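Schema walkthrough. Field components (list of strings):
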Amino acid sequence: MLGKLIKYEWKSVYKVGCLILGAVALTTFMGWLAFQSPMWKEMETGHSYSGAVAGWLNIISGLTLIMYVILLACASFGTLVYLVVHFYRTMYTDEGYLIHTLPVTKHQILVSKILVGGIWMLFVGVSLILSAVFLCMTMLTSIFGHDMAMFWKEFVPVMDELIYMMRVDFDVELGVRFALGCIKLLAAPFITLTILFGAVSLGQLAGRHRVLMAIISYIGISIAMNFVGSVIRGVFAVALYGNIGQYMWVSMDIGFLVDLVAAGVLYFVSWNVISKKLNMV
Amino acid sequence: MNELVEIAGLTKAYDAQHVAVNNITLTLPRGKIIGLLGPNGSGKTTLIKMLNGLLTPTQGTIRINGQAVGVETKARVAYLPDRTYLAGAKKVSEILNYFCDFYADFSRERAMGMLQSLGIDPGARMNALSKGTKEKVQLMLVMSRDADLYVLDEPIAGVDPAARDYIMRTIINNYNPQASVLISTHLIGDIEQVLDEVIFMRYGCLLLYTSVDNIRAQHGKSVDAYFREVFAC
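Field assembly_structure (string):
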């Protein structure tokens, strides 16, 4: 039954997901277009293109880049908001009558929603990273032009120095850090959604104003998570006094672990609400 | 085992002042069409929602086929809510696929036959259908299952008289001796001819549970007339 739930959940969100991916592609194209302005050529050649047309192109280029940043932020935030609203609508409004009368377990319902939503958030996240990398490359090409070889010639030694510094000065195992970073990146969308779904479910325990209560729950959860994280970081700050590199990594790990524990607790909260306290009024 | 539904000490209180269902104990047999009747706010829909696991009882137990409300009972109970619960963007055919996938007892052939009889295009989207047609689609989905218990909350409230006749015929035709149908409605006159038993509810309490024949024999009245007498304002 889990497979069927995933199939139908996928069917119900993929159109909006594809729309957001399309918007990211379009925005990236706009960003690329912005870097075709003479302004960037000026940076490469030092030659100043004068005239009203060049001036307007530069203004449009600048505005397009601002729009690029705003639209990409909207794509990320919009995906999250859409998935949370979709969860609320299909679980706790009239549409919830369908899913809660299916012969499936509550775990299967929750897992299907977290899995499909998390995968779409991952897709959007990866598309945003790719877009930013593509635009950075476009910017470098626009500025350095034919001197890209020289750019790489300078870039590689700087990176080598940075890696050396992290390994020697900050005592960081880069292989382990990279692997952990990948795991965190992959887990983050699922953790974020589980926490948000938990907040929505907590809101359903209220007799009235359930959406408002869900928002208040989320604010409360965020404050609690930050507080717990700060306390643990404080303990480690004392223990690792003087070793700022180590503390920096431990601090990031603590943040991830707090998120993970919160997601586990809130998954149980969601399960408890739909199993034992469901009130479809 | 002739008992299909066993309800014991069932109570649902939304808050201290608002008790929607108050300590109901009731056993429903197999093979009956039962009317769940009562004025507005008597607790009919609350009771139905608890049978389907959409509301958590404050106290008491419900057992269907000897099992507590859960995955197993949902596989054997076909429920028609009193509202439109299907997503508007979905096509009727997509909803049929959905029901086929999740309910082992769903008959696509029967569903297609009913759609044809009602003149509903399987390719139509739900949000393009009228309120009455949406209700017919929902009823078609419920009655296309070979369930043990059919729970219908106001199945004929929003449809025209001709469709009501069709719905009543559908309920009778799809009825089997091992299954029971629980119908909640205000339109008693329209369904009285198909009812075997009736449950009267008032203020969340069980007022009466008896057979239709008993009402006619004891009071010399139709169920509709007796209901009007009992619940006269």
